[in-house]
Amino acid sequence: MPSRLGVQEFMVLTSGGVPIFHHALTPKPKLDDLLSGFLTAITSFATEFGEKSVQRLTFEGSEILYEVPEPGHLFILLVEVGAPSRVLWAILKDLSRKFLQTYRMQIEAGIQIEENYLGFADEVNRAFRYYEKVFVITAGLSPYSVPSLNRDALKVASETRGLLDEFHRDFGSTGNRVLDAIDGTSTVSKISERLGLEIQEITEIVEYLAVWGVVRLSKLCPILKEKDARFDTFLDLIGLPQKDYQLLGRARPLCNGQRPVEEISEKLGVTAERLYAVLQQLGDGVKYRLTPIGGLDGET
């Protein structure tokens, strides 16, 4: 059955249209029988024009992602319409790079027999499992998520997978500004405010970096002191409006460092934006605990 990412099939073809590896997650694969002539045309076009970036097109109720990372071979993912683009691009690039590394000798020898490449199925399954976790993590990205940059991972990804070149091509100077603004303590919302960019722009860039594995995401969990006379005096000094004071009173038991802003706001029946705005008025009166959104440690 298709993965949670909507992946149906993965295939590697030579520039002449000969399939040398095919991994299907559906009982009735399409790529072999229905699209052979079409894939040959794609291969010829991509090879002739030297297209190395991932391309996407719709065909018979599905979508095809393909790339030619180097002359001679075409790498293809057949996916459901509307499947998550950025994660799928990362899968395709990851698999194409590892396939070329693993079978360099066979490729240079011109071997086109599928049996020689069957062992790559384990790597394909590993990639699907890993990127399903990535998708779950990035799906939870919100204006109140805190991104932190792993500079060692960024360096490795840039040197081995050309991350920065592709990143600059996709996001230009805006991407560089966001990259520089990621400090491990600022929320997406705060970065947006500081740079004067839309939250959606920041979110897309952070998601891109997270998919590549160079940014980790954390949830912002507020901590409020237990109610006491000094804290009430503090609230009086900052002149908190009555409606905000009431919201704060309801939120206080939930703000114990164990729940993120989004979960607390949902329980209170208000927007996360509204709750966060009230908390921001407290200044140093509120502390935050960063809870990493994990599950990928030790995996590559």
Describe the structure.
Helices cover 48% and strands 18% of the residues. It is an alpha+beta fold. The strands form two sheets. Strands 2-1-5-4-3 form a five-stranded antiparallel β-sheet. A three-stranded antiparallel β-sheet has the order 6-7-8. A hairpin with a 5-residue loop joins strand 4 and strand 5. Helix 2 packs antiparallel against helix 4. The longest helix is centred in the middle third of the chain and has 19 residues. It is elongated and about 80 Å long. The mean pLDDT is 85.
Number of domains: 3
Poorly predicted runs are none
CA-based shape: elongated
Query: How would you state the average pLDDT, rounded?
Result: 85
Q: Using the 3D structure, state the CATH architecture of the largest domain.
A: 2-Layer Sandwich
The gyration radius over C-alpha positions equals: 24 Å
Strand content: 15-25%
- Here the CATH topology of the largest domain equals Beta-Lactamase
The ordered H/E elements are EEHEEEHHHEHHHHEHHHHE
CATH class of the largest domain: Alpha Beta
Tell me the CATH superfamily of the largest domain. Answer: Longin domain
Amino-to-carboxy terminus distance: 24 Å
Percent in helix: 40-55%
* Global structural class: alpha+beta
Mind describing the biggest β-sheet? 5 strands, antiparallel
Largest sheet strand order:
2-1-5-4-3
Secondary structure tally: strands: 8
Counting DSSP H or I runs of 4 or more residues, the number of helices is 12
